[in-house]
């Protein structure tokens, strides 16, 4: 089973301290819940919310475990992530996720509703994001494709979330696993960053980087971080750059069916566009500027010909991108959420 978590300065509790059984656990849970980690759910509540983990309610699978759609607290929709107890990464990610989300609040970060740790189960309960992952709207699914404006707005939302991570805390926080499957869309297609299990606090003021073992996802991983094992917020910037190309091209970051020089999207992009790496704030500024230009173009187009709608104006390049993706099915569609596609996950 899992070992108990001792976060935020909470004292370790063994069988001889704080009573036996539930009394000792209550003391431990209190140290976690009091930090703003959300509600502590009982396993009975989780079972009721997921109909005893009904497989028909599974909405995602990753290295951490399965994600179920459920309802908590009298009908509130939620995404319920159940850790696989046989995964070595589960414990560390469970602790990190609670630690990070207990101190982070932002419109473009997925909110943690609560957690459950009972009978060897480790479960996280999040706000439900009705439109799933950004990736699922780019290629590899039957969902309707996003317009160019929607893609831009989704990327801007994710950039705002990452910019907050990098600047909103004393040392900043580095996400370390930025990819299109970790950018979720709510019912209004507002984008939010998710999955903070690999996140790390940024370097202390007198340091330029954090020395740490390499973790991340193939295709998105910063080569400088991989080579030097020195983590900075610029590693997130690199990964987000890959996300931008993925959104523009509507193709997987690794596609072995393409010509050799195009298999890796990031390497292909860097061959013709290589510049010094900006900050997340600079990336956000440029994206918002592009959105303003796009909206101005649409307004000018509509005033010139009212019979030509915005959706028609975008349908050409949008459909073309989607068609390219359909012409090149790829293995990444099947393995992106699998733990084998994450470096250092086990």
UniProtKB/TrEMBL annotation:
Protein known as: Kinase-like protein
Entry-linked Pfam families: PK_Tyr_Ser-Thr (PF07714)
UniProt source species: Trifolium medium
SUPFAM superfamilies membership: Protein kinase-like (PK-like)
Gene Ontology MF annotations: ATP binding; protein serine/threonine kinase activity
Sequence segments annotated as region (Disordered): 307-346
Alphabetical list of InterPro entries matching this protein: Kinase-like_dom_sf, Prot_kinase_dom, Protein_kinase_ATP_BS, Ser-Thr/Tyr_kinase_cat_dom, Ser/Thr_kinase_AS
Residue intervals of the Protein kinase domain: 53-346
Keywords for this protein: ATP-binding, Kinase, Nucleotide-binding, Serine/threonine-protein kinase, Transferase
Keyword Transferase applies: yes
Residues involved in ATP binding: 81
Family, per entry: Belongs to the protein kinase superfamily.
Domain of life, per lineage: Eukaryota
SMART domains for this protein: S_TKc
Matches recorded under Gene3D superfamilies: Phosphorylase Kinase, domain 1 (3.30.200.20), Transferase(Phosphotransferase) domain 1 (1.10.510.10)
Ranges in coiled-coil conformation: none
